[in-house]
Each structure stands twice: as structure tokens, then as C-alpha cells.
Design brief:
9 helices, single chain, alpha/beta, 11 strands, elongated
Length: about 290
């Protein structure tokens, strides 16, 4: 569905009585970390996250909550709105998300994006495979990095993976709309399918056999990342063609998994020549 033309922006802060009338018919706020709602909608909040979703024709927005300033900013940026925004005070959005969430005056309820099949990903560049990485902050940061390096897809398991909503979406800063997430039931079988399609499978682990900068790399390449602490599971490690490490010169020899993903992607894209691939039309994601 293509977004319709933007609605005229609000030019004045609605009167306090208007807030009360709108709030009377609104669902009660939920507390704690935002997750997918009971009707299957995902929760998206924050400027970059919601703006990218509004600009994605494949994303169906169900409801949009915005402060007057945020709605005005969307209009000034020429963002087409597929639904009429419900103008609310910042504290109304904060009540939905919890005290620590930075929402920038925007919250959307949307349909989840479809998960493509492995066979739909063209075997030409780089994919990231996440082996039971459960922290939504880490997965979101990995997705943001993946968008920056033009990764073709991120592959996760149906179990032991966070939902693509709330904190993950905010940490991804809009990357959910740019990087397909492929959800598989069995990671070992998915890796075998990638190998059959021509991918080289390279696991990343602190106990790897060689430094990633010295490993034999080629595209298409699947870079496999394990959870912090546990690392790659035994079967995942055994299924990889090779397991490499990141040699660091300092006294700390390991990185947060999202930081390790960023460094590893820089190394492999330089080594495989993927940085020479055509760049996407959209500019880089802002902070």
C-alpha cells in the first residue's frame, strides 16, 4: 500500500480539553518494555524508527501517535502519512513506553513486516546469521550496522530471538525497514541451505582458528555471530566452514556482540570487495 498525500500539519497546540476528549476513547497505557500488542501489532517509537516506517510502502501503519511538534516536523520533511495522526502530549506516549524510552514525540502501531524465505535472498553479497542473540538492544544495533554495510539479510531463529518491536526497533534506528529479517526454525539446516546456494560460512568466535583479517574470505558470505558469553553453539560452530576471531591489540580481548559485528563487517567488506557494490539510494542513517 502506498502512503497517501500528507495531511495538513497542525499549526497550533490543541486545547487542553481536546487532549481529554481524545484520551477518553484511547486504550489504557501499558507499562514496562514495549512488545507486540495482543492483536499482533508491533510498537515503533522514536523519530528515525517511525519516519522510516512511514516512508516504507511495505509497512502498514495502524495507528500513529504524535505530539504537535513531531507532526509538524513530519510535514516539514514531506513525509506522507497513511493514517491520520492522533495528537497527544509527550507524557501520553511516555506512559505507553516507560520512563526510560526516548520517543521524540512519535509512536506507531504497525503490522509486522513479512519474513522472506532464504531462497528469496540473492546469493551475491553478505548475510548475517545470529545464533540465539536475545538482547533486543544488541540485535537492533546489529541491524543498524547491517543497513550501513548494505547487508542483504539478517537471519535469526524463531525461538531465542527478540521480537522486531519496541526496544529492538528503536535501537535499529529505522534499519528494520531496510534490512530483511529471515526467520528460520532450525539454524543448522538454514546454514546447510546457505552452503548449497554457494555461501561461504564463517563463524565469529573469540576462540577462532585465525584472525578474521587473515581468513580466506569470498562472497557470497554468511557471517555467523553467537550470543555474548555462550558464543557459537557447538552444532553451529561445527556447521561453519571456518571459525575466525578478532585479534585486538588492547588489554580487553573481546567486544560487545554488536560492536564485534560492526568491526567484522568492516573487515569482510574490505576483503571481499563488497564496499564496491552499488550504494542504496537512501542516505546513511543518522544518530
Amino acid at each position: 500500500m502506498r502512503p497517501r498525500a500528507p495531511h495538513p500539519p497542525a499549526t497550533q497546540q490543541p486545547h487542553r480539553s481536546d487532549w481529554k476528549r481524545k484520551a477518553a476513547g484511547r486504550r489504557p497505557p501499558f507499562r514496562g518494555a514495549p512488545r507486540a500488542s495482543g492483536d499482533g501489532a508491533v510498537i515503533l517509537y522514536g523519530w528515525h524508527t517511525v519516519k522510516a516506517a512511514l516512508e516504507n510502502p511495505a509497512r502498514r501503519i495502524r495507528r500513529l501517535y504524535a505530539t504537535a511538534n513531531a507532526a509538524r516536523r513530519l510535514a516539514e520533511d514531506g513525509v506522507a502519512l497513511a493514517v491520520e495522526p492522533e495528537l497527544v502530549r509527550p507524557d501520553v506516549i511516555a506512559q505507553r513506553l516507560g520512563p526510560d524510552a526516548v520517543h521524540n514525540g512519535l509512536l506507531a502501531e504497525a503490522d509486522p513486516l513479512p519474513s522472506p524465505e532464504l531462497e528469496e535472498i540473492e546469493p551475491a553479497g553478505i548475510v548475517l546469521v545470529l545464533d540465539q542473540i536475545t538482547d533486543p538492544h544488541n540485535v537492533g544495533a546489529i541491524l543498524r550496522t547491517a543497513a550501513g554495510f548494505a547487508v542483504d539479510a539478517v537471519i535469526t531463529t524463531a525461538r531465542h530471538s527478540p521480537e522486531a518491536t519496541g526496544v529492538l526497533a528503536k535501537s535499529a534506528s529505522g534499519a528494520l525497514e531496510y534490512v530483511p529479517i529471515v526467520t528460520v526454525q532450525n539454524l543448522a539446516r538454514a546454514l546447510a541451505t546457505l552452503r548449497e546456494r554457494g555461501y561461504s560460512l564463517v563463524g565469529l568466535d573469540s576462540t577462532g582458528d585465525a584472525d578474521l583479517g587473515d581468513a580466506a574470505l569470498r562472497a557470497p558470505l554468511a557471517l555467523v555471530l553467537g550470543a555474548e558469553g555462550k558464543g557459537l553453539r557447538q552444532l553451529t560452530r561445527a556447521t561453519c566452514d571456518q571459525v575466525a576471531r578478532l585479534d585486538l591489540p588492547g588489554r580487553i580481548k573481546s567486544l560487545n556482540v554488536s560492536n564485534a559485528a560492526a568491526l567484522a563487517l568492516y573487515v569482510v567488506t574490505k576483503r571481499t570487495g563488497s564496499l564496491e557494490r552499488p550504494k542504496p539510494s537512501r542516505g546513511p542513517l543518522a544518530g
